[in-house]
Amino acid sequence: MSTPTTTPLRRLAVASTVTCSQQATVYGKCILATYTDVKKDACKEEFAKFGACLREAMKRKW
Amino acid sequence: MFARVGSRLLTRLSRRSQCQTRLLASISSSSSFSPTSVGPFQVFDRNAKVLQKDRAATLSGGERSRTVDYVRDEIADMLIERFLDIKKNFNSILDLGSGPGHVSRLLETSMTKRVIMLDSSQRTLKRDIDEQFEVEVERIHADEENLLDVIPRNSQEAIVSCLSLHWVNDLPGALVQIKEALQPDGVFLGALFGGETLFELRTALQLAEVEREGGISPHVSPMTDSRDMSNLLGRAGFTLLTVDVDEIRVNYPSMWELMDDLRDMGESNAVVGRRHLIHRDTLAAASAIYKELHGNPDGTIPATFQVIYVIGWKPAPNQPKPLGRGTGQTNLKDIL
């Protein structure tokens, strides 16, 4: 079994909470502002930046 | 029971779409339940739950599972506190859904001579088999949903259940079976997760799914609430009911550690018709939302575990009964 630091999920965890924490906060704040009436892609732009940072940190595309 | 009904509706819908795509009357699912025999109370995939628990209990030789005992141990402690209020010496107690023995290991010889541990996951049941308990222990590997298959009617003096009834499909039926298994004047003492449990995780995942994918699916189980519990206990035929609610908040560094711990507890999602994977964008979005919506000022995130404690007695002719209305001799005004 691989160690916790190397599993893809673990790396995603680090990427989303440490490496891209700034973009995550911007996205979270956007949801917070609209959470009583959330629609699909309500925070698309904010997530695009967050997602780009995640892909950069994970060094892969999905 | 609104939450339960809601989810049942969800599972019904998903089953219908299954029927449309599969025209032959064949069961191709590897899971043990067949779509043809799913009753109205089928909310959870019991087979998957047993597999999850078995796996959790054996990971790293049980070490991972022991690390995450904190919630169950804390609640077992509170349950024992309530148990101590019952001034009665028992010969035997049945620990229903015992796990490795969170409640059983706290029992003392002054409370009972022996304890029967019953759990549907064999590996969880035997995780701490080498540990010495203060009272004599017997372990039975059986399904909590079919209690009366292994436990004779009118045979138990007391039944305790600590955090296992939230995975039972037919909760009203399970309570009736518990009452049937008890001797007259026997007591049932239970702790089960209430509807507020993990509401932060539930809402974060829902918001993330709506915003990213445009729909929601069940990730956190429907759970009962305290009003339902008193109704259900009454309906099952228990008397002298006591129901109270408590909340435990645990702080985690982030949503990821919470999900890791839930998995190690064997508490992963087992709702019928659940999605087997979540898109990583959705997961990352949920983590960000969780932190912003519910996070603590210090950057950690809280998770709420709401616990409903219930006590009920099986009726017996010689049991003390509440006095009739208007029979009080002391005026409350004089005391207050």
Give me the secondary-structure topology.
The complex is a heterodimer of chains A (62) and B (336).
Chain A: H1 8-19, H2 21-34, H3 44-58
Chain B: H1 2-21, H2 46-58, H3 63-67, H4 70-84, E1 90-96, E2 112-119, H5 122-125, E3 136-141, H6 147-150, E4 156-162, H7 171-181, E5 182-193, H8 199-213, H9 226-236, E6 239-252, H10 255-264, H11 280-294, E7 301-313, H12 332-335
Parallel strand pairs in B: 1-2, 1-4, 2-3, 4-5
Antiparallel strand pairs in B: 5-7, 6-7
Helix pairs in contact in B: 7-9, 8-11
Protein name (chain A): CHCH domain-containing protein
InterPro entries (chain A): NDUFAF8
GO biological process, one term (chain A): mitochondrial respiratory chain complex I assembly
3D architecture notes:
The complex is a heterodimer of chains A (62) and B (336). Chain A has 62 residues and is an all-alpha fold. Chain A has a domain at 16-58. Chain A is 66% helix and 0% strand. Chain A has three helices and no strands. Chain A has helices at 8-19, 21-34, 44-58. The longest helix of chain A is centred in the C-terminal third of the chain and has 15 residues, at 44-58. The relative contact order of chain A is 0.17. The model of chain A has no long low-confidence stretch (mean pLDDT 89). Chain B is of the alpha/beta class and 336 residues long. Chain B has a domain at 39-198 and 222-254 and 304-316: 3-Layer(aba) Sandwich (Rossmann fold), CATH 3.40.50. Chain B is built from twelve helices and seven strands. A seven-stranded mixed beta sheet of chain B has the order 3-2-1-4-5-7-6, sandwiched between helices. Residues 1-31 of chain B have low confidence and may be disordered. Classes of the chains: A mainly alpha (62), B alpha/beta (336). Chains A and B meet through helix 1, helix 2 and helix 3 of A and helix 8 and helix 11 of B.
